[in-house]
Amino acid sequence: MAEHDTTRIDRTRLAIPSLTGFYGAFSPYTYAFMRFSAGAIMVPHGVQKLFYGTAVNTAQGMAAKGFPFPLPLAYFVGFVEFAVAIALAVGLFTRVAAAMLAIEMIVIIVWFVGPNGYFWGRQGYEFALLWLLLFVAIFFRGGGRYSLDHYLGKEI
User: Fold this and answer.
1) Among 99, 102, 93, which Cα is nearest to 133's?
2) pLDDT in tens, 52-82
3) pTM of structure
4) Which long-range contacts (CB under 8 A, 24 or more apart) does 97-103 make?
5) Which of 20, 32, 142, 40 has its CA nearest to residue 93?
6) Burial class (CB within 10 angstroms; exposed 0-12, middle 13-18, buried 19+) of 155
7) CB within 8 Å of 34: residues ≥ 6 apart
8) Residue (of 139, 83, 82, 75) closest to 106 by Cα position
9) Looking at per-residue confidence, does 25 or 118 come out higher?
């Protein structure tokens, strides 16, 4: 059985010290799991816009807020939510991908859900804020050990 890095886990602080091995076995993969999940969960939003026609609805919402060129912009958002989110999931150009997705969340918060005045609920901005914070954290951390950026040996 392979040894796991348990040096980062202070056994004396655990309520159940026997879990040290369990935590040590999985902790090296948690950041990759978080980064992958953040990207993968965004992909269906892009799929809807690009392949199932919801870009038109998105464009109508953008036009109502005064955004120029709403239909091309809606397709660009679909591209970000699809291709850029896949890049984030696999850790390719991770910082650029995270920055693009963070900017999208800022736009959503400032122009679409934030003006509703609700933090939580159907019209609230709590989820967009959570995504924003997650993408900002990924931006600063980069791809990590289990990413294509790491495999290629370069990050931006």
Assistant:
1) 102
2) 989 999 999 999 999 999 999 999 999 999 9
3) 0.87
4) 97/39, 98/135, 98/136, 98/138, 98/139, 99/135, 99/139, 101/38, 101/42, 101/131, 101/135, 102/132, 102/135, 102/136, 102/139
5) 142
6) middle
7) 134, 138
8) 139
9) 25
**Is 88 within 8 Å of 97 (Cβ atoms)?**
yes
Question: Taking the alpha carbons of 73, 81, 102, 91 in that order, is the dihedral positive or negative?
Answer: negative
> Which residue type sits at 68?
P
**Neighbouring residues of 17: CB distance < 8 A, sequence distance ≥ 6:** 11
Q: Residue 97 has which token pair?
A: 């991908």
The tokens for 72 are 């091309």
* Number of neighbouring beta carbons within 10 Å of residue 38: 20
